[in-house]
Specification:
homodimer, 504 residues, alpha/beta, Aspartate Aminotransferase, domain 2, Aspartate Aminotransferase, domain 1, 3 domains, seven-stranded mixed β-sheet, four-stranded antiparallel β-sheet, 12% strand
């Protein structure tokens, strides 16, 4: 225990760090710096990605831990140091708000969402039990109800919750499916099961699906991949074959995982046909709609997810196409009665027997997380400001841009789009004359090297993938300020860096 | 696809929402409101918890989704509406910064940590691949190195990463332990294993440990609980008995889970003795140091976790006793070579074969999450400002207050402390004369009802637990602005509400 003199000294240092006036001063500085930075980034006055080797950034970040202020530094010194740190963090970060960012499925978020999120972080509104974040709970509940109805379910018949990411959401849904399919697996484990249970999945399903099989004790080798049609969508006829065979082998089937849309090229599965097959076989249908679930907010693109309402479980990430900062993902169960299936434990210090009805509002009973952030503050706040229209605009505009980009790729003799995009994910190859007729592996390797040159130049940020094992470039138009002119510049940039790479 | 007129309209609405000037205006308003709120809360000018029934909050939150601004509302209207929403969110939240908050292990965070976090959220710095959050990666890496060395490991010999919460961190560590202990369980699953593998755990281990067994396919019934000593610490002799028996039954042992400290009463296990036993049996030792890991930053309290450096895996939550906003948890592996054991998959669009060394810095290979927040910005920023001293102060002061509270409970004839606290978690019962000699269940039920009255009054926030099945009150002194005077007031408040409850 500290002596009373030591306690009073510690208290003094802490009181200075907790001073509301310090928060005020630092906060206003932060806002000025953030707003100026956003202006610069939106106007492309900086590199998209300020490329530096990881080791250099790690060493620099470590050096700042050694340069903290002397104990007893006054408020002015703290504020000056704070601003320096903010400047550094902004300079070294990825600039998603640059319209030349067309990379991963991580959006340039609606800026005010970051502010609502900041309110939750600074006051530390949490969940697990209702008391810890009464408004966080309220925001999440009303959004679950709203999004579930957009999926197409009648009010109050379904359940859902926010979780820290789509991978965790997929894991949670598949855990519930496993527990339902395999009876006592939650309590007894899987070691007693003779025939290995199977998870049936879209051949291009997100890597978190295979991982879930590994985590849940099913085994990654027990994932049965269903063949795709020409547009890389799950083929219901092949799904039926797979299920028939598995039934013939008397292997337990945990779930079928369909995609809306696939990560690789953004293909939307024919969900209604798939649901028919699953229904015939009495198998749980899980739809990973992390990206495409947001089509539900758009009258124009809603048909892409026709049949989504027939899924037993659905994952929908607001931190993708609802343009929220990470992480704000939702997992839904069509049947409200299954909401406690994934987990079945009690923690006596958490769930109060003196208020039994409350457990319904204690998120900890239904999520992998115990303590959970107020992950939905951004979505709730932005929705309360702008309504559904803004989200529909964001989906409509970026999906339309995806198609416009495809048209440009088609029109260009030296570009080869690899699919007609259904949304804002567009995969293609650059095939300059010098490489026409090159072996596929050479062409694929060229795409990967070229992509790396471009991102390290800071001109654009795009990603790569492999289609049938051969490298390709992949873009997601996920900054709503990107324009067709930026897409033209992207083609030019690829050509220019491609020529340099070929010359090198 | 949208028509070109529709695109231009959508673009206009979006541009207004993304305007840096709007961020500036809203941001400054938020900061003013946050600073004023923090001042009010620290001075206890509001209820700790503004208690309302969940359904009322949900209905109110839902009603705001219906009252969004008309399309085309100008900036002034947006700012006004924004401020209203902020006011509402602040009014309805839990007030952790009130010094009368002595509840769950969720701290009143260092306020500036919320600002660093806000920078990450607004600019949406993410992880999974290095490029997406170069500075987020750098901050995490240097903190992992720093905290691991504080655990007692030589530089660069260990591995670690941040994850979204202690439960997920426990899951990740136990997944790695399972994969190591059971050979091919990641690929083949557990269904082939004849004898059910066992997880051996502290009898009071956090509920996420039992859950992990359920999730990982081991089964919650396969958790073997090790008996405790008189201070509710894991008893190494009983651990040895358990391991001997399990070996005799030829059951595979996944891991031993020890606590530093236990959630229920904050008991620190004798880690060195436990490590000796685990070493003798060649069993993986996992230490859940979510709460107590922070003793490592304090010269005074470091002895509580002596032996922690001998664990194979360790969980340490910065969003507990490092006073960070949720969520910022760390999982560590003593042996760096095991860092990829938990997951073994590849995602071609993520991990770039054109830059092979980079995978080391791509967090997605090592976490359940694919996209991950910049969870360590708050910790990095606050450490860079104040150094280790502030964290040591926070631990020293709150642990000392825990002991001071115990002394008061001991001195009061109508209070019964249930243990001598080792840290800032203190469990006790209120036993007024009218209940002296009452049956234990009656006394326990009284604690739970009384606790609920107090939190609904808004005077204090504390929690409840059960010790040997009987209800008790539980406090965590996790607001550094709490003083001994507040603790005196807490006893008075309990007495006053207790009298009312007995009279009712």
């Amino acid at each position: 225990m500290l002596s009373s003199a030591e306690m009073s000294e510690a208290r003094q240092r802490i009181a200075a760090a907790y001073d509301p006036e310090l928060l005020r001063g630092a906060g206003h500085r932060l806002i000025e710096q953030l707003a100026a930075h956003l202006g610069d980034v939106q106007a492309s006055r900086t590199a998209v990605l300020p490329w530096r080797e990881p080791a250099a950034n790690v060493a620099e970040a470590a050096s700042w831990l050694e340069r903290s202020l002397p104990a007893g530094a006054d408020g002015t010194q703290v504020l000056r140091h704070f601003s320096q740190l903010v400047t550094l963090m902004l300079q070294r970060g990825q600039n998603l708000h640059d319209p030349r960012y067309v990379g991963h499925q991580v959006p340039a978020p609606v800026p005010l969402a970051g502010l609502f999120d900041a309110l939750g972080a600074t006051t530390n509104q949490c969940m697990a039990v209702y008391d810890m974040g009464p408004w966080a709970t309220a925001a999440e509940w009303c959004l679950v109800e709203r999004l579930g109805q957009l999926i197409g379910w009648p009010r109050s018949t379904f359940a859902g919750m926010a979780t820290h990411g789509g991978s965790l959401a997929n894991l949670t849904a598949l855990l519930a499916a496993r527990n339902v399919a395999l009876g006592d697996s939650w309590e007894q484990g899987l070691s007693g099961h003779g025939r290995a249970p199977v998870l049936v999945a879209h051949a291009d399903a997100h890597y978190s699906v295979g991982r879930s099989a590994g985590i849940l004790g099913l085994g990654t080798a027990q994932v049965e991949r269903v063949g795709l049609d020409a547009r890389r969508r799950m083929d219901p006829a092949q799904l039926e074959d797979t299920l028939r065979q598995l039934r013939g082998q008397q292997r337990p089937i945990v779930a079928v995982v369909a995609c809306a849309c696939s990560t690789s090229i953004g293909a939307f599965d024919p969900l209604a046909d798939i649901a028919d097959v699953c229904q015939r076989y009495g198998v749980w249908l899980h739809v990973d709609a992390a990206h495409g679930g947001s089509a539900c907010v758009s009258a124009r693109y809603r048909p892409l997810v026709a049949g989504l309402e027939r899924a037993d479980s659905v994952v929908w990430d607001a931190h993708k196409m609802l343009f929220m900062p990470a992480l704000c993902a939702f997992v839904f169960f069509r049947d409200k009665a299954l909401r406690f299936e994934a987990f079945r434990q009690e923690a006596p210090y958490l769930f109060d027997p003196a208020a039994p009805g409350m457990a319904e509002f204690d998120s900890g009973l239904r999520t992998v997380e115990c303590t959970k952030r107020a992950a939905t503050f951004g979505l709730w706040g932005v929705w309360a400001l702008y309504g559904q229209q803004l989200f529909a605009d964001l989906v409509d505009l970026t999906f339309s841009l995806g198609h416009q980009f495809y048209e440009r790729l088609q029109a260009a003799p030296d570009f080869e789009p690899l699919h007609e995009p259904q949304c804002n994910i567009v995969v293609f190859r650059y095939v300059p004359r010098a490489l026409a007729g090159a072996p596929p592996t050479r062409l694929g390797q060229f795409q990967l090297e070229l992509r790396r040159r471009i991102i390290e130049s800071g001109e654009f940020y795009l990603v790569s993938t492999k289609i049938n094992g051969i490298g390709a470039m992949r873009t997601t138009i996920i900054n709503p300020l990107t324009t067709p002119e930026h897409l033209d510049q992207l083609l030019d940039s690829i050509r220019r860096h491609g020529a340099a790479l070929l010359g090198a």
